[in-house]
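Checklist before submission:
- one chain only
- standard amino acids only
- sequence pasted in full

Submission:
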Amino acid sequence: VQLQASGGGLVQAGDSLRLSCSASARPFSSAYMGWFRQGPGKGREFVAGIRWGAGTRHYGDSVKGRFTISRDKSENTVYLQMNSLQPDDTAVYYCAKGTHVSNDYSWPGAYRDWGQGTQVTVSS
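Returned file contents:
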C-alpha cells in the first residue's frame, strides 16, 4: 500500500491546517492509520491514530484538544485537522499504516507503510 500525504504549508501561530493521507488501496478493517511528526533535531513523535474499521482514536499528549483525526472510507483517506497551531508544531508530518498495531500505536516500529511526509511550518 502506498500512502500519499499532503496539505502541509506555512501558517501563523493560531491558524489551522488539514492534512490528508490517501491510501492506494482500501485498508483492512483492522488496520491502524497513524500520523507522526519529526521536528528539527527531534525524534519521530506520535501525533494521532485511528482504527480504520472501528474508528477508535488516540492522540499524543501535546496535541490533545487541538488536533482531530478522521477517515473517509469512501476515499481511502485519513485526515488530520490541526487547530490552534503553535511554533512547536513545526515538523515534517508523516502518515503511516500498520496491520498489527495494538497498544503500541505510538511506536513508529509498529507501522509497516509510510508516506513521504509533508512539511508544516508555524511562524510566531
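Reviewer check: The chain is about 0% helix and 50% strand.
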